[in-house]
Every structure is written in structure tokens, then in C-alpha cells.
Design brief:
Helix content: 55-70%
Largest sheet: none
Number of strands: 0
Number of helices: 11
Radius of gyration: 29 Å
Strand content: under 5%
Amino acid sequence: MPEPPLETGGVMGFATTELESLEQRPPVAEPGPAGTEPAGRPRSLWSDAWRDLRRNPVFIVSALIIVFLVVISLWPSVIASGNPLKCDLAKAQQGAGPGHPFGYDGQGCDVYTRTVYGARTSVTVGFCATLGVALLGSVLGALAGFFGGLWDSFLSRIADVFFAIPVVLGGLVLLSVVTSNSVWPVIGFIVLLGWPQISRIARGAVITAKQNDYVQAARALGASNTRILLRHIAPNAVAPVIVVATIALGTYIALEATLSYLGVGLKPPSVSWGIDISAASPYIRNAPHALLWPSGALAVTVLAFIMLGDAVRDALDPKLR
């Protein structure tokens, strides 16, 4: 005889129904302390880093300085209504006066206006050179670390060759034959000599990341090399590259000013802090203000990016928590 169907009514049926509904219901995260995320929701490295950065006064100060520099680079006329190329020799080497708080340089140009407009060149060179170095170095380093073998050896030896070239000497040799007054030859030179540093950082990060269990599991499931590199390795290896690139950005700005000071970077009539520093050096005794203001702006800019890089490094490095 067939067995009678089980009764689902009454208390047992109610309990069974509730059990099934509880199994299908997503778990509710218990609320954590005030101002924190729920305890059941895992936080990523990036969310933890952003939380630490918001509480870091060094990051806040440096970020505000950089935002200000970017704003005056895009719209310099907001705080400087003059023309940086308009000069009056009758006012050469004069000190500060009404409407000209930084005085005049040796050619009678307004130092304040040229200092403001010089930020555009420095920020453009810094950001574009850093972007090019990060992209080229990250791609080559990631490929070398992921595939290894002959490809790794070849790229490592090429990087060693570029590491052996002195930066300033290389700039004097390569940029001395360039006649263009634009920033692109300088950016191209920085990318040419700057990618090996990022490449080595990316190579080491990829070698470390590809040994993790989740990469081996993805490979065992049949994932392609492209998918493994882009979906599993790159997000976990990009943090060191971001840190090094942020710190290097300030170095590239200083390098552009150095090359312009030596006469092989940007050339007049371009407006650059390096050009102004070079032009004001012979008049340092009679008009020190013409040298101090662009030098101070350069120093503050480089320091802001280095401080920002240090703050990002502290936030992204789990060993420093």
C-alpha cells in the first residue's frame, strides 16, 4: 500500500514553512559601531585606504594644494588677469607694488602673473608624463612578470640599459637637438627614461599576485591568460604602481624645471618655472624676489605630490596598518 502523504499542517507545517523561508532569506548584517560599516559586509583594500586617507591631515593638505594647482592651471586668469608675455623694461627688477605683489623680473615682466601661468606647464608635464610612464611601465612589467622566461629576461635587460643612462645627461643630449617649444618632447623624454622604474614595480607585484590560490583556481577552471591577468592579477597588483607613480609625479615636475633651467627643456616664449629661475639667477642680488617666488612655487608643488604619495603609500600598505 502506498504510504500516506505527510501532514504539513499545524505546528510542524508552520515550522517547516518558516525554516524554508529563513533558508531562502539573505542574511542580515549586524550593525557595527556608529560611523562604521555593518559587520557582515567585508571591506576592500580600496575602501579601507579611502577611510584612512580621509583621516590623514597630510593627505588633506596636499590634496587641497594639488586641487588649487589644477584649478589655476586650467583657469589662470581667475587669479591673474595680466599677460605673462607682456614686459616693460622700464620696470625691470622693481619690487612689489600695487597690483603686482611679486614685483618684476629682469625683463620687466610681472613675476606674479608668470608664476601663476607657470603652474600650467608644470602640471601638464607632471600628469602627462606620469600617465605615460605608468601605462608603458605597467604593461611591460606585467607581461614580464606574468609570462616570465625569455620575455622577462629580454625586458629586464632593456630596462637595465635605460637605468644606466643619467637622466640629466640624457636630457642634455637628446633634447638639445629638439627645436620645438611645446611640452611634448620633454614629456616623451621623461616617459622614455622613466618607464623602467614602474616596470620593475609592476613585475614584482604581478609575480607575487600570480602565486595566490585564487589565480591557480581560475587557471584550473580554464580561464584564459588575458582574463587571469586583467580580472584577477591586475586589480591586486596596481596598488604599488599607484604609490610609486604618485611620488614620481613631483619628481617629473622638478625634472622639467631642471631641464628648462639648463636650456634644453622648454624655451622662451614658453612660460615655465624653470625658465624664470634661470632668467632670474644673474639678478639674485639686485632682485631676489624674481628668483624666490617661482622657486617657492616649484618647491611647494613638488612637496605636495611627494606628501600625497607618502599618504597613499601608508593607506595602501597593509603592513603599515
